[in-house]
Amino acid sequence: MNAITRVTNAVARRMDVMFPGFFAQVKHNHYADFGYPTDLNFKQLYDMYMRNGIAHAGVEKTILKTWQDMPFLLEKERDGSEGKDTKETKLEKDIRTRFSDLRLWQHLAEADRRSLVGGYSGVILRLADSKTFQEPVDTVPGGPLGLVELIPAWEGQLQVSEWDTDERSENYGHPKMFQFSESSVDPSQKVQRQFQLHPDRVIIWSKDGTVHNRSLLEPGYNDLMTLEKISGAGGEGFWKNAKSSPVLQIDKEARLEDMAKAMGVPLDEIADRMDEQVGDWQKGFDKLLMLQGMEAKTLGITLPSPEHFFAIALQSFAASVPIPLKILVGSQSGERASTEDADEWAQTNMSRRNNQVIPNTMELINRLERFRILPEQDWHIDWTDLTESSMAEKIERAVKMADTNQKMKDGGELVFTPEEIRATVDMEPLSDEEKYRDDPTEEDSTAATTPPLPGKPAPKKETL
């Protein structure tokens, strides 16, 4: 080490003392200390989703709530003024039937699930246009029958193979060609499809419709690893306690020659013989351990209760999704998720549906319009509201409204109209015929219930 190097090191040490924590590498590298990966790839995220129950629940709970029911595609938005007898049009029926045959909504839900594990997923469109996957799409004949199949793809299966680098192109900076390789994620499938894919034939499913996104599991990945360490260490500690080898302590008055003679082995093989005997004893509960003047002890390990350590990491992961803890793991000690948790979870998924799922679905509808599979319309996705009250809650609200009207009756004020009360329970207003139908008079009731006298015909009702 020359003089300049020694002076430089001395100055660096002095600066570290004067300004502790200011320079890089002065503190521990926590990722290295705790065993967390610095960078994450799709395989790590996919393996965590497939092998970790909490990670799997975080993804599945989100998808099951978002896709609690399936939507309908309508030619236009309906505000309810059409009346309760409004029927679907022939085009809507044809589309509904075709989408049902293709299991379109289920495939979109699967693509949505895969986009949470990776940064994005893909919906590959098989079209009846007699072209290969790497060719662009013009128009597709046959209407809704022109859509043959939808293939959900993981991020690991669908990679950008070529980017558009022409600054004069309207697609500058976007993928120019994709590479689809089915075996990249699931090599166990019997049919392994692999081909080049034109962007016209794939819908990128992600938060913003691009491939530049993050996985849902990434913010809480360290917490998931912590959960695995805690549960794994607890299980390993329990196993070692249950299967620990005994420690043999020889009595000071014991004679090794007599022990070897009793075991039928030479003196220099007594240790190996005891190892075999202990091994046989550990293999079952009905084995006999001959000690021959020795005392067997076990090295017990006192394991700390893992619940508190587990709960910290579990709460941190739930916050990263975000999902209420009791909804993520279910009922704990008889406690159920509160109404506030359920309402917040419904609002979270409703926001996700409006800001991510519906825009991605409309991108598919617009693509089908461009291919002439669907006619150009003001298409509307009709989907039930996740935040909507249950029927029991609606009836209870209607009863309270009617009670309020009854209490305000003496003041001559009607707080809620009958139409508003019926709307509370999702019922259409009464028509004029239903509202003002004739009530039976006392004479009509008497005539209907009084039998005619014998030999005398029943009186005829006068007609005007």
From TrEMBL:
Location of region: Disordered: 420-464
The Anti-CBASS protein Acb1-like N-terminal domain, residue ranges: 44-406
Cross-referenced InterPro entries: Acb1-like_N
A Pfam entry, by short name: Phage_portal_3
The organism's place on the tree of life at top rank: Bacteria
Name assigned to this protein: Anti-CBASS protein Acb1-like N-terminal domain-containing protein
Organism field: Phyllobacterium trifolii
